[in-house]
Amino acid sequence: MDNYEAAQRLGFPAAACDRFRELPTGDVQVPDNAGELLEYCGVAERDRVEMLAARPEADPDWWALTSALAAGLEEDLEKPLPSNGHTAWPVVPRSSTSVGMWAWAWALLAGLPRLLEAHRRRGVPEAVSIATVKALGGVMGSHREIYGRSGVGLMPLWGPPLRFRGADYEIGRHSFTRTNLGLGDGVAGHLLMVHVPPIGPLDPAVSEQSIAAAVQFFPQWYPEEPLYGLVCPSWLLDPQLAEYLPEDSNILTFQRRFTILPLLPPSTPYEGDHELMRLALQLDPPDGELTAADLDRIPQDTTLQRAFVSHLRSGRHFQLRIGIRQV
Ligand SMILES: CC(C)(COP(=O)(O)OP(=O)(O)OC[C@H]1O[C@@H](n2cnc3c(N)ncnc32)[C@H](O)[C@@H]1OP(=O)(O)O)[C@@H](O)C(=O)NCCC(=O)NCCS
Predict the structure, then answer these.
(1) Under 8 Å between Cβ of 320 and 238
(2) How far apart are CA 274 and CA 252, in angstroms?
(3) Domain boundary assignment for the chain
């Protein structure tokens, strides 16, 4: 089966079809105990039932693409995030069947036994493994919330593939991606990229405990990657938020723990707006700039929701910023 042609038949845009062409081909091994593994990944019963009823074997095109993503994950097992980054898995066309909506979750699940074996070899405690793979259940919940449909296919899956290949671990409040800093000519090092999963408030003490644990554990699990520092790319680090949030808010307290790098030109003026809308407000952003009608449908219950709307109504945009911190 040609992955490129399968992606074309399923209605993926040209860039996604090209991406599938570059992936290895393979035959994904769907684990026999899938139901049990989904429970281990914190998947709610309703989602387990739906996913088990939408196995990718049912459709040769989805089977080929699921196999390709699973084979790519296996090839990258234990590799850190490279210095040229990594791109989220392609979102599936909105018209996809339920097999398509669940297919990428099958690709992630297929690699779970190998991942857990790698964790054990590295000495990662089981509590960390469980918290790490729970992202799968979390993504399904967010998918339902944001898109009003079950599955995982409409979410740009950036973090979950990293978690399921041993590059990202959840330790307490944060997850951390092992990240290579490589500028060529021998300029290289290792960083942890800090993420803030949507699992409750960002209490400063709990956040610092999580960071301290990561700084202690990673050099034990990956002694070949001596740690220079932490990096955090996020809407949370936009200094403009200080115009709206109280000085002692969790978000501004988190900001003060990083040195914010100078602003880079965004890929589109509304890149930060989209990110804040999707990740924080859990709403599906439009394809382009937000219209007055888009802003009218944003709930106005919290300071952040009100800040979002008034900032955009005044013609300004939010920014994704990068923070760094030495350990
Ligand atoms: C990051 C996060 C945990 C911060 O929440 P927090 O600890 O409550 O943050 P703060 O104390 O600074 O909140 C300040 C104000 O903004 C509001 N706010 C913060 N995050 C919000 C969110 N995701 N949705 C709506 N309002 C939010 C708070 O309710 C508070 O307003 P209020 O006093 O009127 O109630 C939260 O935004 C979240 O879970 N986001 C989703 C994950 C995410 O975006 N991660 C970063 C990815 S790069």
Answers:
(1) yes
(2) 20
(3) 1-79+92-166, 236-322
Find where tokens 């993503």 sit: 69
CATH class of 236-322: alpha beta
* pLDDT digit string, tens, across residues 168-224: 999 999 999 999 998 888 888 999 999 999 999 999 999 999 999 999 999 999 999
CA 43/CA 106 separation, integer angstroms = 13
Kindly give, in sequence order, each residue whose CB lies less than 8 Å from that of residue 5, ignoring residues fewer than 6 positions away.
none
Residue that has been written with the tokens 């690709």 in this structure = 107
Atom of ligand 1 nearest to the CA of 254: 12
User: Could you identify the atom of ligand 1 that is nearest to the CA of residue 201?
Assistant: 7
* For residues 10-33, average pLDDT: 91
Instruction: List the residue whose alpha carbon is closest to atom 10 of ligand 1.
Output: 250
Q: How far is the CA of 5 from the centre of ligand 1 (A)?
A: 42
Q: Which ligand 1 atom lies nearest to the CA of residue 233?
A: 48
> What residue owns the CA closest to ligand 1's atom 37?
280
**What are the tens digits of pLDDT across the range 252-310?**
999 999 999 999 999 999 999 999 999 999 999 999 999 999 999 999 999 999 999 99
